[in-house]
Amino acid sequence: MNRVRQFRKQQQLSQFELSKKIGVARQTISLIESDKYNPSLELCRKLAIALNTDLNSLFWEESK
Questions:
Q1: What is the pLDDT of residues 14-29, one digit of tens each?
Q2: DSSP 1-64
Q3: Which residue from 49, 61, 59 is spatially nearest to 11, judged by alpha carbons?
Q4: What does pTM read for this prediction?
Q5: What does the alpha-carbon distance between residue 60 and residue 21 come to, in Å, rounded to a whole number?
Q6: What is the distance between the alpha carbons of residues 58 and 55, in angstroms, rounded to a whole number?
């Protein structure tokens, strides 16, 4: 489970806006959010930067 959707909504970004920010298709964001696509480390890093967070918070740490 990842928290891309949660962080994206906190930043008030649409899937389209986030996709343009990191250079991927909107469908890629949708697939990542629904755990149907396993992004590369580089894409994970771009997501974390665009969402103003770190990889652990975005993909690995349990929510509190």
A1: 999 999 999 999 999 9
A2: ---HHHHHHHTT--HHHHHHHHTS-HHHHHHHHTT-----HHHHHHHHHHTTS-HIIIIISPP-
A3: 49
A4: 0.89
A5: 22
A6: 5
